[in-house]
Amino acid sequence: MVILIYLILGVVAVFVMLILIAPKKFDVKRSIIIDNTLPEVFQYLKHIKNQDEWSPWKKKDPNMKQEFEGIDGEVGFVAKWEGNRDVGIGEQEITKIVENETIESQLRFFKPWKSESNAYLRLEEVTPNKTKVVWGFSGENKIPINVFFLFFSMDKAVGKDFDEGLASLKLILEK
């Protein structure tokens, strides 16, 4: 009986240690240089509906159901989706726009699991006809779920999708 108690205490102690050392936050981002002016790239990106043309997730389920609330390209606009298991169910709301600098939004996922994160597009003029676009998202890994992220890389999970999306964006904006 004493050995069982020590064993249980040992397992609990290991789990608590894992919780303490596991990452509490994540930030995944990728960037690309687009041969186009900053204002033109910004005007295109601030409209969430344009993501249908370059988002890798739209390609994963071209038949996903979508609903929209508000005025696209303005704070408060919400895009809702319901798709296959690759894209799940969720919504994206524009939360901040700084003209020719950044578009921020909140991503709320409901299925396959519930979570929230902050998405962003940051733009920077490299030259008058070249614009750097940084696409990313960040969030918190809540305790005790953060232990999972010791064994799962968010960067590896979505980084390839970000690269694919930015490559599509570049093709569209350089036509």
Automatic annotation (TrEMBL):
Entry-linked InterPro entries: START-like_dom_sf
Transmembrane domains' residue ranges: 6-23
Lineage of the organism: Bacteria, Pseudomonadati, Bacteroidota, Flavobacteriia, Flavobacteriales
This protein's UniProt keywords: Membrane, Transmembrane, Transmembrane helix
Protein name as it appears in the record: Polyketide cyclase
Superkingdom per UniProt: Bacteria
